[in-house]
Amino acid sequence: MAKLQSLDPNTPMFAQFKEETGPIVLANTFVVPREKTEAFLALFRRQAEFMKAQPGFVSLRMHKGTAASQLLMNVAVWESTEALAAAFGSPEFQRMAAEFPDDVVSYPHIFEQIDV
């Protein structure tokens, strides 16, 4: 299973699930060894298909770092933290998440839009 790290140590992912707000953006940056990128993306596509079918899902985009970067970043929009938490906590999603290699590191964080 991928190692989950907090992007902001003061607000870990599971604490963010308790915040009732929406719409929200989940930005999840992954550090993936180059030789495992294709396998990672194949599994991620399976997860994405599952998430797209969940209540409250809005959209999803995957991005890759430029040059020789080992970073991939998923940006997903959800109607609410409750919807994301329900999908994330589902047994089917958790089974897929357990398939990620141990040497993948994930930095998920939930954001809400602000006007500037």
From TrEMBL:
<protein>
    <submittedName>
        <fullName>Antibiotic biosynthesis monooxygenase</fullName>
    </submittedName>
</protein>
<dbReference type="InterPro" id="IPR007138">
    <property type="entry name" value="ABM_dom"/>
</dbReference>
<keyword id="KW-0503">Monooxygenase</keyword>
<dbReference type="GO" id="GO:0004497">
    <property type="term" value="F:monooxygenase activity"/>
</dbReference>
<dbReference type="InterPro" id="IPR011008">
    <property type="entry name" value="Dimeric_a/b-barrel"/>
</dbReference>
<keyword id="KW-0560">Oxidoreductase</keyword>
<dbReference type="Pfam" id="PF03992">
    <property type="entry name" value="ABM"/>
</dbReference>
<feature type="domain" description="ABM">
    <location>
        <begin position="24"/>
        <end position="114"/>
    </location>
</feature>
